[in-house]
Every structure is written in C-alpha cells, then in structure tokens.
Amino acid sequence: MTTGWEAAVEAQIRSAQERGEFDNLPGAGKPIPGRDQPYDEGWWIRSFMEREQIPSDLMLPTPLQLRRRVEHLPAELRDLPTEDAVRSYVAALNAEVVAWLRAPTGPRVVVRPVNVDEAVRRWRADRQQRVVTATPVEPAPSAPPAARARRRWRWWRR
Predict the structure, then answer these.
(1) Angle 120-125-127 (CA atoms, 0-180°, nearest 5)?
(2) What is the rounded CA–CA span in Å between residue 50 and residue 33?
(3) Is 127 exposed, middle or buried (CB count within 10 Å of its CB: 0-12, 13-18, 19+)?
(4) What is the per-residue pLDDT across 2-47, written as a single tens digit (0 to 9) for each?
(5) How big is the chain by its Cα radius of gyration, in Å?
(6) Three-state secondary structure along 74-137?
(7) Are 129 and 155 in contact (CB under 8 A)?
(8) Chain-centre distance of CA 87, in angstroms?
(9) Which pick of 22, 24, 89, 114 has the fewest CB atoms within 10 Å?
C-alpha cells in the first residue's frame, strides 16, 4: 500500500518519463560502477576522495599524521633554500607535536619532537652531497667536422 507522498512522487516520475526527461541521460546503458564488487560501507568516502583528489593521509588521526611528517622530514627539508628556513620548518613541526603531546587525542602513538640541530646537520649533508654528485655540464663541441675541414683548407690556401 502506498502513502500519499509516495503516490505523488510516482506521479511526478511517470509524467517526467512521458515528457522524455529521462531519455539520453549520460551513462545510459552503461553498467553501474562497482556493481559486481562486494558491498563496502565506505564506498562513498572513497569515491569522494578519488573525485576530489584528496590525499588519504588527511584521514589519519593526528598522531599518525605527525609521525608520518616526522618520517618524511628529510624529503621535506631537501628543497628549502636556507638554514633559517629549515630551522623554522622544524620549529613549526615541533610546535604541532608539543601541542598534541599536551592534549593527546586518537590512538596512543609515540611521537617525539625533532632535534633541530640534527635536522640541520642532515640538511647540510644532503645539500653537500647533491652539489658533489651534480652532473657536470659538458662543453659544447668546438665546431662540426665540416667547419674544421673548411678552416684547414683556408690555412692551406694561404
């Protein structure tokens, strides 16, 4: 037995079908994505994150986000131009870690502040290694072989 509002909705759908509003819709005749896969309660979250290109790291609890940032710190510091920039970046990260340690939320994960001097030492060593291993610029060839032959010919002609 249908209620009054269900009957009204069915009537609206029927009239829209008669007007042809459901004809030639995008995706008509195509299979529904994920139809052959088992049911997953979080399908809409995953599809939203893929559609909006949201990194999955943002779904982690705060302590795990902080720990991941500490682990990836050398890669983050690599492109910073000065030692002051490195120190300020590490200080900002340490401030976030200390704020979390004062009022921890989420799972119990060991997260410690980063030693600033150790981070700067690693940054310097990485920077020095990149300078040493940089590929040297090869000198341009002096002249093509045909030009060298012309020069030799001019010398002989004199």
Answers:
(1) 90
(2) 14
(3) middle
(4) 677 888 999 999 999 999 988 888 888 888 877 888 888 888 888 8
(5) 33
(6) HHHHCCCCCHHHHHHHHHHHHHHHHHHHHCCCCCCCCCCCCCHHHHHHHHHHHHHHHHHCCCCC
(7) no
(8) 24
(9) 24
Helix 83-102 to helix 116-132 angle (10° resolution) is 140
- Maximal CA-CA distance, the chain: 113
End-to-end CA distance of the chain: 113
The string over 93-102, giving b where at least 16 C-beta atoms fall within 10 Å of a residue's C-beta and e elsewhere, is bbeebeebee
- Token output for 52: 């909006």
- Residue corresponding to tokens 């710190």: 73
